[in-house]
Amino acid sequence: MVAIPPSPAAEDKNLGPVLLAVYYSTLSLGVLLVGLRIYIRLHITRSYGWDDTCIVAALILTVLGAAFVTMMVSVGAGKHMYSLSDPRFQALEVVKWNYPYEVVNIIAVNMVKVSILLFILRIQNDKRTKIVIWATICVMTVVNLITDCAIAAQCIPADKLWNPTKAGTCFKPGQLSQFGYAQSVFSVLTDAFCTISPIFILWNVQIRRRIKIVIWSLMSVGVMATACNIIRSIYLNTLNADDISYDITGVAIAAILELNLGVIAACVPTLQPLFRSMNIGTRRSRATGSSGRSAITKASTRK
Questions:
Q1: How many CB atoms are closer than 10 A to CB 38?
Q2: If we measure between CA atoms, which residue out of 8, 155, 122, 143 comes closest to residue 55?
Q3: 56-86, pLDDT tens digit by residue?
Q4: What pLDDT does residue 182 have?
């Protein structure tokens, strides 16, 4: 049974609006960048590929996740339990809506990383790179599927998680956290790989240094996503806290930023053909009369 912490003399806090503001602001930017990416691939480079499909799928799951997070906030997420009108019931309702969000979030983050890795293959597709990329995709997907299955099966039937009086079985305390920590460690490693690899690939791209620096700076949001993953791992133990309706907020915000910043980081390098179409920052070769297409532009024409 959920315990209720005593009410302190300090003024109550409500992080629910902060949770929604973080989600919808980063989601809006993600929708804009994914829209630009798809426009570029369909109308400028005409090279729509599986990496684009993966990022669109991730965005759809992100929108679905927004609905779950909105429901979490509506039932009390972000508030201390002592400030809720029906603490035990509302805490279980927060758990109820967090359950599908966790499942969706892990799948969406996996799709973002697959999209980034497939984009890398557009630029660098030698045999060694293919082996490393596809091995990473396979292992990463298997790890995330195992974690998702563990989350989905933590209680049988599933609704026993938020209906403790119902007959059934659940994992022992701490068992699910072990899956979470293992998945988080592996996720941090793949985050770092997906963030750092494109930066090295961009090193010799034929665009002005000023534009290259801007692209690298925008891609640095991927580093922030990695940091959010680390923070989420640190706060995982709060999912079992007595004040879960409030303490879950830190985990939720970190998970939201990891996903939404990942979507943004995945789209930034694909926008270079748009800059080129507007004659921004590209070098043209007078001797050959070529348009001076960069490695990214060339890669964008590969399906």
A1: 18
A2: 122
A3: 999 999 999 999 999 999 999 999 888 888 9
A4: 74
* 3-class SS string, the chain: CCCCCCCCCCCCCECHHHHHHHHHHHHHHHHHHHHHHHHHHHHHCCCCCHHHHHHHHHHHHHHHHHHHHHHHHHCCCCECHHHCCCHHHHHHHHHHHHHHHHHHHHHHHHHHHHHHHHHHHHHCCCHHHHHHHHHHHHHHHHHHHHHHHHHHCCEECHHHHCCCCCCCEECCCCHHHHHHHHHHHHHHHHHHHHHHHHHHHHHHCCECHHHHHHHHHHHCHHHHHHHHHHHHHHHHHHHHCCCHHHHHHHHHHHHHHHHHHHHHHHHHHHHHHHHHHCCCCECCCCCCCCCCCCHHHHHHCCC
Residue ranges, the chain, pLDDT below 50: 1, 9-10, 281-293
pLDDT value, residue 33: 95
How does pLDDT run across 102-121, given as a tens digit for each residue?
Answer: 999 999 999 998 998 898 88
Q: Cα-flanking dihedrals φ and ψ of residue 79, to 5°?
A: -105, 150
Report the DSSP beta bridge partners of residue 170.
155
At 291 the pLDDT is 42
Residue entry with tokens 């590209």: 282
pLDDT, position 263: 92
Q: How far is CA 27 from CA 8, 31, 183, in A?
A: 35, 6, 24
Its pTM stands at 0.81
Residue with tokens 């925008």: 218
Question: How far apart are alpha carbons 303 and 293 in whole angstroms?
Answer: 17
